[in-house]
């Protein structure tokens, strides 16, 4: 293979880089006070986040327990919360693949985690179908929305790198086939043209 272990390790470094950035952006999306701008709260456009919002005084506060969220709002909140958790699971599997012995179909499992994280992150935009945007007031993208887009893009790029990059050999254990080959390879003494004996690997 033209691209050896060094190339594989570089691709894994990029994968973890995009994955870490995606998780950080997901957390920023969750904690943002302005996922969208809506005119529902207060007399002017105010920030509405997944778990916090900007009140009339301009202070970022957490929603009360009895806040009347719609099903779309709740779905967006839950998906925003589980997206970085799923992505962290994908990172854990990729780390096990890199450090320990390869697991059968490990790339498929990691891809499923990445796809699930992308779906969950995309579903955060259900907020635009919730109570804040369906009562006659206009809504527009805000900081949290851009964080969510960035997280989705990071997960997507990480999944592309996973699919199209070569699998690296585990760092903490040798490849099983290579180990067996070393164990069963023994020198064989064969005479050459001059009658001298030369050790030849079998």
List the helices and strands and how they pair.
Layout: H1 5-31, E1 36-38, E2 46-48, E3 52-54, E4 60-62, H2 71-99, H3 106-122, E5 139-141, H4 143-164, H5 176-184, E6 187-191, E7 197-201
Antiparallel strand pairs: 1-2, 1-5, 3-4, 6-7
Helix pairs in contact: 1-2, 1-4, 2-3, 3-4
Labels describing this entry:
single chain; 202 residues; alpha+beta; 3-stranded antiparallel β-sheet; two-stranded antiparallel sheet
Question: Can you characterise this structure?
Answer:
The protein is of the alpha+beta class. Helix content is 51%, strand content 12%. It has 5 helices and 7 strands; from the N terminus they run αββββααβααββ. The strands form 3 sheets. The chain has a 3-stranded antiparallel β-sheet. A two-stranded antiparallel sheet has the order 3-4. α1 packs antiparallel against α4. The longest helix has 29 residues, at 71-99.
C-alpha termini separation: 24 Å
Give the low-confidence spans. Answer: 177-182
What is the string of SSEs from the N terminus onward? HEEEEHHEHHEE
Q: Name the structural class.
A: alpha+beta
Number of strands: 7
Strand content: 5-15%
Mean pLDDT: 80
Tally of separate helices: 5
Task: Summarize this entry quickly.
The chain has 202 residues and is of the alpha+beta class. It has helices at 5-31, 71-99, 106-122, 143-164, 176-184; strands spanning 36-38, 46-48, 52-54, 60-62, 139-141, 187-191, 197-201. Helix 2 packs antiparallel against helix 3 (106-122).
């Amino acid at each position: 293979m033209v691209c050896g272990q060094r190339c594989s390790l570089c691709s894994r470094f990029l994968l973890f880089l995009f994955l870490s950035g995606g998780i950080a952006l997901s957390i920023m999306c969750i904690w943002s006070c302005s996922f969208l701008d809506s005119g529902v709260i207060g007399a002017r456009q105010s920030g509405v986040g997944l778990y916090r919002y900007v009140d009339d005084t301009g202070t970022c506060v957490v929603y009360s327990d009895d806040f009347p969220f719609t099903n779309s709002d709740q779905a967006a909140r839950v998906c925003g919360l589980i997206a970085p958790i799923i992505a962290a699971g994908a990172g854990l599997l990729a780390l096990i693949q890199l450090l320990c012995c390869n697991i059968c179909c490990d790339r498929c499992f990691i891809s499923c985690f990445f796809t699930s994280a992308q779906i969950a992150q995309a579903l955060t935009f259900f907020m635009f179908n919730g109570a804040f945007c369906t009562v006659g007031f206009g809504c527009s993208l805000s900081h949290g929305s851009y964080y969510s887009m960035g997280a989705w893009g990071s997960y997507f790029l990480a999944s592309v790198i996973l699919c199209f990059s070569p699998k690296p050999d585990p760092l903490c254990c040798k490849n099983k086939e290579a180990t067996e080959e070393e164990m069963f390879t023994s020198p064989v003494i064969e005479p050459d043209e001059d009658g001298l004996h030369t050790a030849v690997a079998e």
